[in-house]
Amino acid sequence: MAAATQEAGDSPAFEFPKSYNFPPFFSPQPTALTRQAQLKKWSILVQRYCKHHRIFKITIIDALDTPLFNNSTLRKRLSLQDAKAVIDYMVSKDGDERAEWLGLEKSEAWVWWRKPEEWATVIATWVEETGQKGTVLTLYELVQGETTEKQEFYGLDMDVLRKSLATLVKKGRAQVFGTEDQQGVKFF
Question: What residue intervals traverse the membrane (predicted)?
Fold first, then answer.
């Protein structure tokens, strides 16, 4: 899902924090300390919003018109520059590297409400708990199979899954093989 949207009939409505209804929240604050606190609040909001709506990647220009960056009640929204500043903060060490730009033009970004390493831990725990070690699973059945329907990683973006599995491969806890559209994974 490229933009931050919610379909009718999806999960319950997202609850925005109180600061979202405070007009200065949408304007860059002039003092460094206040600006840092504002960026941290935006980072938390973006992560929670994306987690709630299961958004893994956002296209900034599209997200500007969604409730994430646009409070229609206040008639306030982040500018493109300010939205990019939020993501820049999230990409930084100060922002706990909770986002990653895709390309130099900074038009699209991964939002890590769970970092790939964190997803890897969730998946590895499930593999351990269900006795799947040594079993070959396709990437598709891992995130779309009946046995994983109730798991948090069900429906995980395939690119996020690949990034997550790469962390397990580096640690010698998994092996990924096959072609792009028919990849499998074996856990150790």
Answer: none
> pLDDT, tens digit, for every residue of 4-55?
433 444 568 999 999 999 999 999 999 999 999 999 999 999 999 999 999 9
CATH number at residue 168: 1.10.10.10
Q: What does the longest C-alpha to C-alpha distance in the chain come to?
A: 56
């999230």: which residue's tokens?
A: 90
If phi over 0 gives left and psi between -120 and 50 gives alpha, with beta otherwise, what is residue 3? beta
pLDDT of residue 10: 52
Among the listed residues 59, 56, 76, the one whose alpha carbon sits nearest the alpha carbon of residue 67: 76
26 domain residue, yes or no: yes
- Considering the domain boundaries, does residue 7 fall inside one? no
Q: E strand or H helix at 78, and its extent?
A: none
**What single DSSP character describes residue 148?**
G
What is the domain extent for residue 97? Answer: 18-111
E strand segments, 56-105: 57-59, 70-71, 76-77, 99-102
* C-alpha span between 97 and 52 (Å, rounded): 19
Question: What one-character-per-residue DSSP string does 114-125 give?
Answer: S-HHHHHHHHHH
Say if residue 62 is in the same domain as residue 24: yes
Domains contained in the chain, number: 2
What's the pTM value of the predicted model, to 2 decimals?
0.88
Provide the CA 157 distance to its chain's centre, in angstroms. Answer: 9
62: closest CA among 111, 119, 22, 3? 3
